[in-house]
Amino acid sequence: MSDDRSFDRIARWWLETGPTEAPQRVVDDALLAVQTTSQERDFAVPRRLPTMNVRLAAFAAVVVLAVGGTAYLLRPSDSTVATPPPSASPSPAPRSAPPASAGATAPIPEGSYVGPKIQAADIIAYVNADTKLTAKQKTFVIDSMFGITKARTWAASLEFNAGKMTQRQSVDGEVSVGSGGAYSFLDSHTLVVKEDGCNGCYLAGFTVSRVGDSLTLTPIGPPADESDAIALKYLFGSGPFTREP
Amino acid sequence: MDRDLVERARGGDRDAFASLVHQVSDTLFAVAQRILRDRGLAEDALQNALVTAWRQLPHLREPERFEAWIHRILVNACYAESRRGRRWAVNVRVLPTHGLTSPDGSVDLADRDELERAFRRVPVEQRSVFVLHHYLGLPLVEIAETLGIPAGTARSRLHYATRALRSAIEADAGPVVEEGRLA
Questions:
Q1: How many angstroms separate the CA atoms of B144 and B54, rounded?
Q2: DSSP letters of B70-127?
Q3: Cβ atoms of A130 and A217 closer than 8 Å
Q4: pLDDT for the residue numbered B35
Q5: Which pLDDT tens digit goes with each residue over B34-55?
Q6: Are B28 and A49 in contact (CB under 8 A)?
Q7: pLDDT of residue A142
C-alpha cells in the first residue's frame, strides 16, 4: 500500500468486484424506448459554427451595431428591414406569454416559423453535384444530416418560444427535433443562439430580416465545411420562414 | 466496434443500434455501477444513456469514435443520476462484502468498507476519471478526450480521487462522515 503500483493494484482489484453484466430488463426497456424516439438530425447548423465564439459574436455585434447605426441614421423613411416591436406588428399575438427576458427576444414574435417544402430529390441532386464532397460525405449529408434517402419532401421550421429557439425538420411529414438553445437579440437585426447540450456551448449568430410574418435568417460567419454550407443553404437559405397562425 | 453498424444506426436503423447496444451495454453498466456505487442509479443511468445515444447518434461525425462517444454520454448520465440520487442518499448503505481480500492480502474487509466510504465522498466527476482509468484502463489523455476536458483537469481529478482513497486505507481511521451523507 506504500507505493503507487501497490495502490493501483488494489484499486483495480477493488473496482473489479461488482456486477459486470447489464440487466436484460434495463436494456430491453431502453430499446423499447428507442422504438418510439426520433433521432435528432444533424442539420442543426448552430453547432456548425465553432469559430463563432463569444468574442467573435461580440465583435460581430459591434460591427453590426456600427453599420446598423449608420444605416439607421441614413435610412429612408419606408425601410422594410427594420423590425417593429411586436405590439406594432399586424401579425397575430404570440401564442405564449413573453419570457422574463422579453426585452432580449422582442424583435421576433414567439411562435413557429415554417420554411418552404422542398423536394428531397432536389436536395439529393444538389448534394451529389457538389464536387467538393467525397462520396462518404455525400452519404453522410443525405442519410444522416437530412435523413432523406427514401423521402419525397423535406422542410425546416424554427420555433421561438420562452426565450428558446428550436430547429425542426419534417421529412415526408415526420417531424424530428434538431438542436436549439437560448436566444437573444443583440439588436433588432442580430440574433444569437447559445446551443443546449453542445460541447463548449457554441454561439451562433444570425442577421435577421423580418417582413410581416416572414422571417429570413442569415448566418454570420462562414460555414465550417462544405457539408455545413449545404445545411446552411437549405436550413436558412431555402426561403423565408413564415409564422404559423 | 463495427463501423458499418454505427453508420447504419446513425442513419436510423434501430436493429443496428440494438446490435451496438448488446455489444456495449455490459461495459457501460459496469462503469456506471462503479461510478455511482448504487445499482438502481446505475440502471437508470444506463437506460438514459442508451436512449440519449440513439437520439444524438446522427451528430456523431466519426463512427470509429463510437465507444468513446457513448462513454461520455454515460458519464454525463451518471452525473445527472448522482445529482438526483442525493435526494435519497440518506437511505444508501454500504453493503458488506464477504471474505474478500486483495491479491497481496494488504486490504481486508474493513479496508474495503473504508474504500467504499471514501469513494462515495469523492465528487462524481473525480470518481468518473478514477473508474475510467483504473477499471477501463484508459490513459489520462484518452479520458480527457472522452470526457471533453483538458488533460490537466483529468489528471487533477484522478489525483484527488486517489488521494482520498489512499488516505482512507493508510490512515486506518474511523468513519469521517456519517453513512447517510456519503452518497
A1: 23
A2: HHHHHHHHHHHHHHHHGGGGGG--PPP--S---TTS---HHHHHHHHHHHHHS-HHHH
A3: no
A4: 94
A5: 999 888 889 999 999 999 999 9
A6: no
A7: 83
Yes or no, beta carbons of A145 and B166 under 8 Å apart: no
Kindly report the pTM of this predicted structure. Answer: 0.52
Output B118 or A59, whichever has higher pLDDT. B118
What's the ipTM? 0.80
Residue whose entry in the numeric block shows the C-alpha cell 410574418: A213
Q: How many whole angstroms separate alpha carbon B16 and alpha carbon B8?
A: 6
In DSSP terms, A114 is beta-bridged to A157, A242
Residues of chain B with Cβ-Cβ distance to A11 below 8 Å are 130, 134, 162, 165
| Closest residue in B to A150 (Cα–Cα) | B11
- Of B125, B143, B145, B121, the residue nearest B134 (C-alpha): B143
- Buried-exposed string B50-74: b where 16+ CB fall within 10 A, e elsewhere: bbbbbbbbbbbeebeebbbbbbbbb
In chain B, which residues have their Cβ closer than 8 Å to the Cβ of A38? Answer: 55
Given this model, what pLDDT does residue A222 score? Answer: 66
In chain A, whose CA is at the least distance from the CA of B34? A15
Contact residues on chain A for B107, CB-CB shorter than 8 A: 1, 10, 13-14
pLDDT in tens, A202-217: 456 788 888 888 888 8
Residue A226 near residue A133, CB atoms below 8 Å = yes
